[in-house]
Amino acid sequence: MRKHLTALTMAICGGLLSFASQAQISGTSSLTATFETNVVPGTCTAEIQDSTGNASTEINFGDVFKSDLTAKSRIEAFKLNFSNCSGVKSATVQATPGAGISCSTGSSDKFGSTHGTAFEVWKGLADTGTVLNCTTQPTQNVTISSGSGSLDMNARIVIADGKTIADVTPGAVTSLVTFMVTYQ
Fold this sequence. Notes:
Elements: H1 2-25, E1 43-50, H2 66-71, E2 75-86, E3 90-97, E4 111-112, E5 117-123, E6 130-131, E7 139-143, E8 149-159, E9 177-183
Antiparallel strand pairs: 1-2, 2-8, 3-7, 3-9, 4-5, 5-6, 5-8
Keywords: Signal
Protein name: Fimbrial protein
InterPro entries: Adhesion_dom_fimbrial_sf, Adhesion_dom_sf, Bact_Fimbrial_Adh_Pro
């Protein structure tokens, strides 16, 4: 009798194991998941820095003499500095006339101003770098590495296109240039 009870117990246990095994096999055959994210554009903190490395929205030329204009010798260095970059490997920069400003003439590479003057904006050094043409507005590339990058620039005050030194008059001179930045 003991043999039959053991056999019956094993048969019942085997049946339970078989049932548990059957439940796993006939369980859920597929799962669905929803993946969510928010795709955001990469960005940097960008600022203009004067020749001393201080943040500035104004590049001050101080007093400029007519002889400086004739010699094309008044140049101020500045840089576009990019920091705290996230998701960015490079940027392109384009110089455009700011609000209320136009190019020196319709086909000029100079940014218009007053008193018979204009400004040239250069990537790198004036005369050996690349002029950021006011009319055609070419883009300049900036490499972003380890979350930062910079673009060394120079601005030069000159006699406006179509003008002569005789057309230059005394007074405060300004020209607003907007740098459009696109991050990649």
